[in-house]
Amino acid sequence: MKGAALIGLAVIVGLFLLQRVDTSTAGSSTTLVKPAKTTTTAHSSQTTSTTSTTLPTTPKKTPDQLKLLVLNGGAPTGAAKTLRTTLLQVGYTNQPQASTWTGHRQTGKTLMCRPGLDREQVALSQQTALQGAKIVPFPTPAPPFSDGVDCVIVVGA
């Protein structure tokens, strides 16, 4: 009887300590989620405000679903192909062959994704091969060879 009471007390104390000590909110896996878009409306005649949150309605594309194009924009010959191969190795397998953006010259790497692919753009930008890449909106007119492509990466000098 005393043993059962001690075990019950130990379970209660253990649960209490877990609630007080464990302040982490992460689960067993880590998923990057872009903060939801928040709109706040305040009316001058009232002292209350209304906040609404819009969550993405489409599921996030996985690396193998995201169609990427790597272009050379002034880097040494073969740099775009090397980056393409590196991204293939980490799961970004939906890519046409790397190509050259004729007449375009830039410094460093640039990442641009079509509208609505913000979550995918953040995940892609965190790849080691793209550390320090400048993230820019998808341009109009679109880069060459980018019809049907979700994101374009340009490798510069």
Give a quick summary of the entry.
The protein has 157 residues and is an alpha/beta fold. It has helices at 2-21, 79-89, 118-125, and strands at residues 37-42, 49-54, 68-72, 99-100, 109-113, 134-135, 151-155. The chain is built from three helices and seven strands, in the order αβββαββαββ.
The dominant shape is elongated
CATH architecture grouping of the domain at 68-155: 2-Layer Sandwich
Instruction: Give the class from helix and strand content and strand pairing.
Output: alpha/beta
Biggest sheet record: 5 strands, mixed
What is the CATH domain class of the domain at 68-155? Answer: Alpha Beta
The radius of gyration is: 24 Å
Please, what is the average pLDDT? 82
| Spatial arrangement of strands, main beta sheet | 4-3-7-5-6
Characterise this structure.
- The protein has helices spanning 2-21, 79-89, 118-125; strands spanning 37-42, 49-54, 68-72, 99-100, 109-113, 134-135, 151-155.
- It is α/β, with parallel strands linked by helices and 157 residues long.
- It has a domain at 68-155: Alpha-Beta Plaits.
- Strand 1 (37-42) and strand 2 (49-54) form a beta hairpin.
- The protein has three helices and seven strands, in the order H-E-E-E-H-E-E-H-E-E.
- It is elongated, with a radius of gyration of 24 Å.
- The protein is 25% helix and 20% strand.
